[in-house]
Amino acid sequence: MSTFWSLWISILSILTLVFVFVCLYLNMKNYPGVKEGESMGHEFDGIEELNNPLPGWWTKMFWVTAIWSVYYLLAYPGLGNYTGFLNWTSSNQGITSLAQSKAETEQGLAEGLHVQYDREVQAANEKFGPIFEQYASQDIKALADNDEALEIGQRLFLQNCSQCHGSDARGGTGFPNLTDNDWLYGGTPEKIKETLMQGRNAQMPAQLPALGEQGIKQMTQFILSLSETGREFDAGMASAAEPKFAVCAACHGADGKGSVAHNLPFGAPNLTDDIWLYGGSERAIQETLTHGRNGVMPAWKDILGEDKVHLISAYVYSLSQDK
């Protein structure tokens, strides 16, 4: 905040407090020439104003509130850039990276600074950390049958994962559905936890430079021809693109069934089913081939820690079972 606005806010706040104290003081005094209990000469709708002081409890309440406001402005941030003598702040400001956030948190706790968010996180870790640690020692498949563990895992999922995958975990365009059995990197408990811990970075390169506009159209028809659901396609254009599919087969496999089917680490999707991360229409496929896809799944190891990731993994694994 600039010096001007800091002074502006401070002066307004102080003047407001002075005005409040003056009003309280004046309202405790009787009007000159009018005895207590006598009429003030004002009447409205049968109600006459008398020269009586405010009730004692009411006056004391106002004074306590006003005095507390002075203490609050001196103790906490409130007067422009003044930070208060308690050095309290709601959170660390101006954070640009996770590493910086961790460093400032550790520094604040070591120096005894009153950073509200850090204190609340510390208290939560002390209270719930042993619970997470206890569940982290158990197998993910066993946790998938533990209702209490799944409830905790669901809450962690809703807090951290639902922004992309939805509260029902069914995903959306560009975000995988976690309730089916279609997995780009594998749906075993170990692979799910690996994905959460390390994150994923899709690298579908743009094919326009290699294929050209006509080649993109032909390859789109060939991909449509791979569908096991019997989609319509142009046989001539598909036939022309078939030899060029060898480049795509390195990731998707010669049969187009994706990297999971061939135990490859690329995360290339199955092109023969009816599940499409970015849309399976002719136009969407053509757009994917033209521009490529670079979706990012962030790594949660350093954000949540392995114990919490373990519980989320169990919850996510449970969603796709019996389906």
UniProtKB/TrEMBL annotation:
Cofactor descriptive note: Binds 2 heme C groups per subunit.
Record field: transmembrane: 6-26
Domain Cytochrome c: 148-320
Presence of keyword Secreted: no
Location relative to the cell: Cell inner membrane
Residue stretches in coiled coil: none
Keywords: Cell inner membrane, Cell membrane, Electron transport, Heme, Hydrogen ion transport, Ion transport, Iron, Membrane, Metal-binding, Oxidoreductase, Repeat, Respiratory chain, Transmembrane, Transmembrane helix, Transport
Pathway noted in the entry: Energy metabolism; oxidative phosphorylation
The organism's place on the tree of life at top rank: Bacteria
Main location group: membrane
Keyword Transmembrane helix tagged: yes
Cofactor(s), names only, from the UniProt record: heme c
Task of the protein: C-type cytochrome. Part of the cbb3-type cytochrome c oxidase complex.
Subunit composition and interactions: Component of the cbb3-type cytochrome c oxidase.
Family in the record: Belongs to the CcoP / FixP family.
Protein name as catalogued: Cbb3-type cytochrome c oxidase subunit
Organism (species): Catenovulum adriaticum
Upper taxonomic lineage: Bacteria, Pseudomonadati, Pseudomonadota, Gammaproteobacteria, Alteromonadales
